[in-house]
């Protein structure tokens, strides 16, 4: 086996929920609403396999690492890690699916270079057995070293390229030299053999062009060298510095996490104490309010007892010393009986005594309650004092952590990050200089060394076999056709009968491009030719509809057979990105992701739903 298998695509960042899709060895489908990150999956895979840049969507903000797991032909597993807007790819020789802090096992340049093997392109080409293969660059026998990107555009098809009128073999931005190389890349896959080198030298005009290019490259290289902050440290030394810095950053990050955890715990404990102190303050306020009310009631009781004593004493005196109408009942003297004043005085005394006794009992109960409340208040005040002391200790600990540990660590981490940024910038300049020097060396090599012999083209037998493979793929998908399919290797155009692919509408162009890509991978794997082993098809069916076909018929025809073929008959790994729903019988057999763009849907999108990505209410 010489093909690769994609395992997962993961975005990770500090404080961010991991975003991931896991790929099935046979078929993975990503479908759903627009603007959910479906095509971003395709673009991210392309970026992780050497594309120069990745246009980030707003939901990707805060994610600092992109991870792509790959199963190699020898059954080992690696993980490629690349930061957004970075020209370096870190290789970890195991399956990593979360934010990684440790140093990588290997660091590669994301851009292809024929002069060094320390780049992702040469690394992957070696794994699939094609490193060292040459591609033709012109009809005069010029050659260049094949790179992984020369093959990737034949198996990873973006939505734009899927419907483009440009041939499936070519890239939209290719010049004449690029078109020759792209046609040669297809030949390399179909035949398993690159171009051969034989005696042939550049003519005078070509040498003048090469000298002009070399002079321009010298100026660019000199300009980049002026931007280097450190002229003394070479690229290897800078990489060693960066590795040491990353290891130190890992230790500082671990210390920062520990200090942050302790600071958060101290703040949580202080918040708990604040709640307890508030409860104690409320309880003291309630107790003081009750004591104030009870003291007023106590004073009232004591006042009542004093008045009752005066009434009792005054009543006795008035009854004995005053003549005339009775001071107790108002009876006239002639109606009063003998001893009348003594009887009335006794009755008053009894009434006053009873009321005094009742009041004294109430006062006694009140005094007990007041004593109990005062005791409770003292206990609450003591507990409050203890909690206040603990709160002061917690405040002191929080202040100490912030002043002695957290702030210095944050400053140190910031300095490390700044140093890391400077080193990565330096390494980026070195990498760019290295790329330009590689191009310059290649130009010098082409001028000084023999070129290759003119390409002989794809043998007719292989070309016919490839044409029949495309036809079998279209037939398996139930795409109606009445004429043979043929690839013209000289124009790089695909024909159905006399009509070229570019002469069809968008829907048919997309289906033909998807069939071309699928058949190429299937043919290479069947013939045991080297191939990346996977295909990524973005929107192959969304615009396709056969003449006279209704929407209900469409769901039961081409899409259903398309997915069944990829699941059951295709020899490689297929990843399909589509807007429309796949057939229901495929959902349980393939790895399927439905991006809903709904907060309560199966999955909001590629990135988890956050406050920043939540839909408008």
Q: Can you count the helices?
A: 13
Poorly predicted regions: 319-323, 549-555, 611-617
Instruction: Find the structural class using helix and strand composition.
Output: alpha/beta
Shape verdict = elongated
User: What is the rounded distance between the termini?
Assistant: 52 Å
Rg estimate, integer Å: 45 Å
Sum this structure up briefly.
InterPro entries: P-loop_NTPase (IPR027417). Keywords: ATP-binding, Nucleotide-binding. The protein has helices at 38-48, 120-127, 148-152, 159-163, 176-191, 204-227, 235-321, 340-448, 460-476, 506-526, 551-556, 558-568, 584-587; strands at residues 5-12, 19-22, 27-32, 65-71, 77-82, 88-92, 106-109, 134-136, 143-145, 156-157, 485-488, 493-496, 499-500, 534-538, 573-578, 591-595.
Structure description:
By secondary structure, the chain is α/β, with parallel strands linked by helices. Helices cover 53% and strands 12% of the residues. The chain contains 13 helices and 16 strands. It has a six-stranded antiparallel sheet, covered by helices on one side. A five-stranded parallel sheet has the order 10-14-15-3-16, sandwiched between helices. A three-stranded antiparallel sheet has the order 11-12-13. The longest helix has 109 residues, at 340-448. The radius of gyration is 45 Å and the shape is elongated.
């Amino acid at each position: 086996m010489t093909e690769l298998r994609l395992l997962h695509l993961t975005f990770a960042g500090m404080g961010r929920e991991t975003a991931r899709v896991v790929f099935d060895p046979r078929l993975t489908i990503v479908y759903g609403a627009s603007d959910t990150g479906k095509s971003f999956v395709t673009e991210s895979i392309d970026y992780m396999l050497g594309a120069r840049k990745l246009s980030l969507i707003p939901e990707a903000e805060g994610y600092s690492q992109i991870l792509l797991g790959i199963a190699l032909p020898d059954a080992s597993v690696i993980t490629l890690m690349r930061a957004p807007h970075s020209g370096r790819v870190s290789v970890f020789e195991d399956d990593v699916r979360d934010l990684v802090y440790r140093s990588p096992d290997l660091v590669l340049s994301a851009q292809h270079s024929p002069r060094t093997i320390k780049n992702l392109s040469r690394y992957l080409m070696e794994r699939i057995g094609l490193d060292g293969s040459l591609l033709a660059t012109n009809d005069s026998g010029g050659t260049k070293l094949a790179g992984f990107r020369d093959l990737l555009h034949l198996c990873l098809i973006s939505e734009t390229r899927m419907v483009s009128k440009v041939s499936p073999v070519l890239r939209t931005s290719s010049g004449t030299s690029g078109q020759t190389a792209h046609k040669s890349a297809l030949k390399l896959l179909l035949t398993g053999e690159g171009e051969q080198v034989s005696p042939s030298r550049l003519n005078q005009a070509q040498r003048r062009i090469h000298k002009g290019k070399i002079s321009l490259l010298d100026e660019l290289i000199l300009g980049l060298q002026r931007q280097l902050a450190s002229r003394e440290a070479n690229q290897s030394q800078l990489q060693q510095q960066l590795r040491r810095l990353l290891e130190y950053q890992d230790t500082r990050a671990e210390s920062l996490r520990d200090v942050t955890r302790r600071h958060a715990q101290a703040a949580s404990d202080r918040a708990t104490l604040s709640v307890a102190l508030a409860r104690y303050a409320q309880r003291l306020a309630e107790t003081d309010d009750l004591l104030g009310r009870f003291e007023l009631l106590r004073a009232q009781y004591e006042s009542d007892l004093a008045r009752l004593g005066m009434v009792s004493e005054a009543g006795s005196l008035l009854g004995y010393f005053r003549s005339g109408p009775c001071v107790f009942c108002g009876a006239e003297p002639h109606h009063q009986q003998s001893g009348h004043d003594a009887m009335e005085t006794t009755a008053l005394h009894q009434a006053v005594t009873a009321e005094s006794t009742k009041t004294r009992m109430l006062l006694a109960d009140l005094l007990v309650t007041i004593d109990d409340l005062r005791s409770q208040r003292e206990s609450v005040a003591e507990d409050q004092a203890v909690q206040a002391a603990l709160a002061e200790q917690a405040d002191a600990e929080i202040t100490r952590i912030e002043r002695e540990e957290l702030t210095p660590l944050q400053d140190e981490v910031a300095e490390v990050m700044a140093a890391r940024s400077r080193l990565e910038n330096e390494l980026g300049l070195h990498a760019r200089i290295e790329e330009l020097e590689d191009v310059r060396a290649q130009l010098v090599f082409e001028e000084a060394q023999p070129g290759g012999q003119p390409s002989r083209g794809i043998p007719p037998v292989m070309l016919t076999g490839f044409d029949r493979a495309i036809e079998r793929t279209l037939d398996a998908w139930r795409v109606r056709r009445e004429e043979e399919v043929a690839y013209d290797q000289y124009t790089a155009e695909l024909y159905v009968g006399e009509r070229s692919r570019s002469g069809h509408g968008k829907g048919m162009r997309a289906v033909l491009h998807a069939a071309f890509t699928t058949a190429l991978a299937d043919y290479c794997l069947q013939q045991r030719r080297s191939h990346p082993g996977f295909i990524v098809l973005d929107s192959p069916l969304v615009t396709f509809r056969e003449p006279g076909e209704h929407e209900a018929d469409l769901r039961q025809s081409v899409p259903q057979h398309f997915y069944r073929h990829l699941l059951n008959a295709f020899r490689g790994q297929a990843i399909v990105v589509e807007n429309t729903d796949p057939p229901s019988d495929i959902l349980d057999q393939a790895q399927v992701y439905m991006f809903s763009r709904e907060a309560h849907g199966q999955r909001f999108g590629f990135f988890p739903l956050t406050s920043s990505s939540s839909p408008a209410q």
